[in-house]
Amino acid sequence: MKHTRINVFYFIIGILAVTLTCMTGTITNMNGRNYSVAEIAFSVSSQNSTRYSWYTAFTAGLNSWIILLLPILAAIPTIPIFLDEQYTSFYRFSIGRIGLYNYIKRSYFRVILCGGLLIGTGLIIYALFTKCMFPIDAKYGALKAVGVQDSLLIQVKNMFILILQMMLWGAAMSSCAWTFAGIFSSKYVVLSLPFLLNYIMQNIFLNHVVASSFFFLILSIAVGFQIWKYRVREVGI
User: Fold this and answer.
1) Cα 222 from Cα 14, distance rounded (Å)
2) For 47-82, how does the pLDDT look when each residue is reduced to its tens digit (9 = 90+)?
3) How many CA within 13 A on the CB side of residue 145?
4) 129: pLDDT confidence band, cut at 50, 70 and 90?
5) CA-CA distance, 95 to 224, in Å (whole number)?
6) CA–CA separation, 230 vs 210, rounded Å?
7) What is the pLDDT of residues 207-216, one digit of tens each?
8) What distance lies between CA 158 and its chain's CA centroid?
9) Secondary structure class of 210 (helix, strand, coil)
10) Which residues have CB under 8 Å from 96's CB, separation 6+?
11) Are the C-beta atoms of residues 82 and 181 closer than 8 Å to each other?
């Protein structure tokens, strides 16, 4: 699968990992114990799953390990292959054939598009899961919810906004890994650095996810271009 520059197997595994990780998100706390979305969805008591709407379940999944693991999941189908090209010096033939600018542009957009698509696909599958397992509106038996509930149309709109934001963040974290791949040769280092960056600064970044994402996307291509110009001069291409 290296001729595609994308590891399709890891891409599929990454999508499944996103979906399953979201299912571990905490949706409620009862009797001092946290219950995940999956536990409530597959609960023996059908009453448990009807107490929460599908949109509540969907947003609960985004407050889980998915935020922490996103940088690795988004980058793993492409970054190891990108590093293998450098280890085998295959990138020299690519640059000689299509030129440095096209090589940078193609590798950069391949990484960010794959990362964003992987995250988005996993979240859409998770959204379909919550739609199948939870009602549109939560049911409280004889009690009635206080306040105005969002319509289904508004919920779907908000869901797609959240998915797009997560896709954008996945693309941004993939772009960081792509930049580090131009400096370091170790797959573990390249995949770990965006993970650590996301872990340390996630509260700041995710409060301004769109601005943060565009910042890293622009910074990565700008820095990456300079790195590859230097590398090309070093090897004399």
Assistant:
1) 28
2) 566 788 899 999 999 977 899 999 999 999 999 999
3) 11
4) very high
5) 15
6) 31
7) 889 999 999 9
8) 18
9) helix
10) 237
11) yes
